[in-house]
Write a structure and sequence with these properties.
The complex is a heterodimer. Chain A has helices at about 1-30, 40-50, 60-80, 95-115, 120-150, 155-160, 170-185, 205, 210-235, 245-260, 270-290; one strand spanning about 55. Chain A is mainly α. Chain B is built from 25 helices and 5 strands. In chain B, the strands form 2 sheets. A two-stranded antiparallel ribbon of chain B has the order 1-2. Chain B has helices at about 15-40, 45-65, 70-90, 95-125, 130-135, 145-160, 170-175, 180-190, 190-205, 210-235, 235-265, 270-305, 315, 320-330, 340-355, 360-390, 400, 410-425, 430-445, 460-475, 505, 510-515, 515-520, 545-565, 575-595, and strands at about 1-5, 5, 480-485, 520-530, 535-545. Chain B is mainly α. The chains are: A mainly alpha, B mainly alpha. Strand 1 (about 55) of chain A pairs parallel with strand 3 (about 480-485) of chain B, so a sheet runs across the interface.
């Protein structure tokens, strides 16, 4: 009974993932008193990209060609490892939350290589910054995962999701995860998805050489990754309640934050990540005290 | 067998056999590789010398891990150090080789001195150099003497293992040897130190108070972070790999330290798991570091340079080397589906379960250890994106890289074998871990079968499936129409390799973020035609080698000052020397009479 549920959950999440991005964009425009594109715009973008012919730099190698599939593959595999809709709706033997971090890192490893592959300065800069930020993100994620898992006694998603009560340590850990998620999903104040010209870009610089179908795959992967992270935060922070409502709350928080903040200088990101690291240490301390 | 009162029995317990397996697993491919590597590189006589030294080196390592007598162990250890010293300086025309060799031989003998002291103290209690007798007598050693022995062993073996701050020789010596030797040195030789710790501390001396384990944990963490940070800053491919060995030895020592701590906290099953993680990482590191050094050697053979700033684009010229190097890079970054992931994951799990089962501040300490290990993993991934990306991707940055050619089959086959081993150890991890936990159980003195690794996951298979999925998608889409174009250059239309991101630039964010430790400084040099026109611009960036500058340089200068002072007692006059001899004899007579 569980297996079809997990697959159904994964399919639903894939289907709605562009909608979450569209929703956040719409919200941001609403706050800025602009009209903006409709919430379904990400779907139209994907459809358009899939139809377009690809332009591939002649300096690239097979690493560049394979990467979109690997990136999409890793996030799709990760979808089966998180119980989004409720406790127990995940394949436990697929891996625990620690393995999830490593699996996503595999996709990042390849996308960073692809950034270097075409030999442009943009791509190299993007890869360099992405690996820099991600190496700071990793300990925070792990510590937050440990903080919520300590009470459950296991790092499997099922055990983590089975903690039914609201816990202070989980809330703090979710806070740390939220900050990290901003970095992982290339949001302000760490990165800006809307800019395409400035030297400030991170993720967009890395995938600058991609076009057509490959770009569509990468875009879809980042939509899914975003939903993945939001789902983890939702499951960790408040272990009960309506999934859609929690997701909407997170999306609203992200949108408000993006509108009200400016992008940070790259080296200020270190401070932000240190802050979230401290948050997750606090979460572990609270968890050790038994709250 | 007895001769000169020394027992030459060889040990064949699980621990010795495991290390023997690791030695042969890396040495055999490296030996085959050397056939192609030495061709055209060395003359006839030197080739013969290299083969003889290689044989001596591998056999002495085998003797180190099997000897049942501490004296034989020490002799084999010294043989191993000497053989590897000669291999480091074999390219003696390079000035750097001689310096690297000197640093190596000095450091390794400092280590041996500490080890010898520890073994002498132990044999004094046992009345014999037999390891079995030492073990039997270890109960009679008082606790404070045990502490001293442990510290002596830790310094002695830590020097060989390259534990920070005793790592200084490693980044000089390992890169300077011929590549197949580097791969054996980094892959296997430094692991004999772990064997020594397990044999003499775990099995013979017995695990002491908890601070032993804590000390090992802290040193291991420092090694992890310092090693990977230096590796990130390195532009020399083989030096980068050597620094990353420091990091990986740290990860192995984390397993060892955690197992000591858990044993003292009364969690033997968890201790076995932690040691199992450490030993599995030891095996894994032997495989992928062996592979990466062979790959770096192939790059050196094809281009004549080890500086990655002058490489690039090799993936098209050397597809097989590139593929196996990529496999090694993924494995060493601890990513699935390769073997490095499993051992890092196991180490993290050991920390997690340790934290679950311990209380209070120790819980937090173990969690922070795990977080720092995760930071190390993240930095390692960044480091190997740089190492692989700058070396193999984009456009060649020099003529040498432009005209590189794939290496012969005798070099490709051993690398491919090791890459397949890395994958096999990843996918077959539950199988491998089952055996290694028996070895870990033996080393901890806990009966096998208690190892609690029942919660194994299939992330490796999933990641392998993702890679296969990607490959088949690419294969299916190989005939899709795609417009070939130039790399986007903002309409400049004159993109050259000089526009590419360099390795120095790649690591710049980390250099700035960790400037408190790396202390970078830069030099700029402008050559001007006139006030307005700069003809050439030179920018160099350096990082301060903290340990060398603040520990070793003062120590060496102190040594020289002391030597200069002591020189005064050697005036060259024969009368004074006769007086010395007389005084010594008188003192000895008094000494003999009193004691």
């Amino acid at each position: 009974m569980r297996d079809p549920l997990v697959i159904l959950q994964a399919l639903v999440l894939i289907a709605v993932s562009p909608l979450v991005t569209g929703f956040i964009r719409k919200l941001k425009n609403f706050i800025r008193l602009r009209k903006g594109p409709g919430v379904f715009q990400p779907y139209y973008d994907l459809a358009k990209l899939l139809r377009k012919e690809e332009a591939v730099s002649r300096d690239t190698s097979w690493v560049f060609t394979c990467t979109p599939y690997i990136v999409l593959g890793t996030v799709l595999a990760a979808l089966f490892m998180i119980p989004a809709f409720g406790p127990g709706i995940s394949f436990d033997s697929a891996g625990d939350l620690v393995a999830l971090v490593f699996l996503l890192a595999l996709g990042r490893f390849f996308i960073a290589l692809a950034g270097l592959d075409a030999g442009s300065s943009f791509g190299g800069m993007g890869s360099s910054r992405e690996m820099f930020i991600s190496s700071l993100v990793e300990p925070v994620v792990l510590l937050a995962v440990f903080a919520v898992s300590l009470a459950a006694g296991s790092t499997t998603p099922r055990a983590v999701a089975s903690v039914e009560t609201l816990k202070l340590s989980s809330l703090v850990a979710a806070g740390a995860l939220f900050v990290v998620t901003l970095a992982e999903t290339s949001r302000i104040p760490v990165d800006n998805r809307e800019t395409h010209l400035e030297l400030t870009m991170v993720h967009e610089a890395m995938v600058l050489e991609y076009s057509g179908r490959s770009l569509a795959l990468i875009e879809l992967a980042s939509h899914i990754k975003q939903v993945l992270f939001y789902s983890v935060i939702a499951a960790v922070a408040i272990p009960f309640g309506n999934y859609a409502a929690k997701m909407a709350a997170i999306a609203i928080a992200v949108a408000v934050l993006e509108v009200s903040m400016a992008k940070m200088r790259l080296f200020r990101v270190v401070d932000l990540m240190s802050f979230s690291f401290v948050l997750s240490v606090i979460a572990v301390v609270i968890s050790a005290m038994g709250f | 067998m007895q001769l000169l009162g020394v027992n030459y029995t060889l040990l064949t317990d699980p621990l010795s056999l495991f290390f023997l397996f690791v030695i042969l697993l890396v040495s055999a491919p490296a030996a085959i590789y050397s056939v192609g590597y030495m061709r055209g590189e060395y003359g006839r006589g030197k080739k013969a010398l290299l083969w003889a030294l290689l044989a001596a080196f591998v056999l002495s390592m085998a003797l180190v891990v099997t000897s049942g007598n501490a004296l034989v162990f020490l002799v084999a250890w010294e043989l191993m150090s000497l053989a590897s010293y000669f291999l480091v300086v074999i390219d003696h025309r390079h000035e750097r080789s001689v310096m690297a060799g000197t640093i190596y031989i000095v450091m390794t003998h400092i280590g041996t001195a500490f080890m010898t002291a520890a073994l002498l103290i132990m044999s004094n209690y046992a009345g014999s150099f037999d390891i079995a007798a030492m073990k039997a007598a270890s109960a009679s050693i008082p606790a404070n003497i045990k502490d001293i022995i442990f510290i002596l062993f830790l310094i002695g073996f830590g020097t060989k293992a390259g534990i920070v701050p005793l790592h200084v020789w490693l980044p000089y010596a390992h890169p300077q040897a011929p590549s197949h030797i580097s791969s054996i040195m980094s892959g296997v030789m430094i692991k004999t130190a772990v064997y020594g710790l397990l044999r003499f501390v775990f099995l013979t001396l017995g695990i002491g108070p908890q601070w032993w384990g804590n000390l090992v944990l802290v040193l291991a963490l420092v090694s992890c972070l310092a090693g990977i940070m230096y590796a990130l800053m390195e532009q020399d491919l083989k030096k980068l790999l050597a620094y990353s060995s420091v990091e990986n030895m740290g990860i192995i020592m984390l397993g060892l330290g955690a197992s000591m701590v858990f044993m003292k906290m009364g969690m033997p099953a968890l201790a076995v798991m932690a040691l199992c993680a450490g030993l599995f990482h030891l095996l894994n590191h032997a495989v992928f570091k062996g592979l990466l050094f062979l790959g770096a050697g192939a790059v050196y053979k094809a281009t004549g340079t080890r500086n990655i700033e002058h490489l690039g684009g090799l993936i098209k010229k050397m597809p097989v080397t590139a593929a196996v190097f990529l496999a090694g890079s993924i494995a060493i970054s601890g990513l699935p589906p390769f073997n490095g992931f499993v051992s890092e994951w196991l180490t993290l799990q050991a920390f997690f379960y340790g934290a679950v089962n311990s209380g209070g501040s120790y819980k937090i300490f173990l969690c922070v250890c795990a977080a720092l290990l995760a930071l190390t993993g993240g930095l390692a991934a960044a480091c190997f994106v740089k190492a692989f990306g700058i070396t193999f991707l984009a456009v060649p940055r020099s003529k040498a890289a432009q005209s590189a050619q794939e290496v012969p089959l005798s070099m490709k086959a051993p690398m491919a074998f090791l890459a397949l081993m890395a994958l096999a150890l990843g996918l077959g991890a539950p199988f491998a871990v089952k055996y290694i936990s028996v070895i870990a159980g033996f080393a901890m003195g806990v009966p096998a079968g208690e190892a609690p690794i029942s919660f194994f996951i299939k992330t490796n298979w999933i990641a392998a499936a993702v890679l296969v999925f990607a490959a088949s998608c690419c294969y299916a889409a190989r005939n899709r129409r795609a417009a070939e174009c130039n790399t986007w250059d903002c309409g400049y239309y004159k993109l050259s390799p000089r526009n590419e991101y360099s390795a120095t630039a790649f690591s710049k964010p980390l250099r700035i973020a960790f400037s408190f430790f790396l202390m970078p400084y830069s030099k700029t040099e402008k050559i001007r035609d006139s006030f307005y026109h700069v003809r050439s611009f030179k920018y160099e960036v350096f990082t301060t080698p903290v340990f060398r500058k603040y520990i070793y340089a003062p120590a060496v200068s102190l040594l020289f000052i002391a030597a200069r002072k002591l020189k005064k007692i050697q005036p060259g006059s024969i009368h004074v020397y006769v007086a010395y001899i007389f005084v010594t004899i008188v003192l000895l007579v008094i000494f003999m009479g009193r004691f």
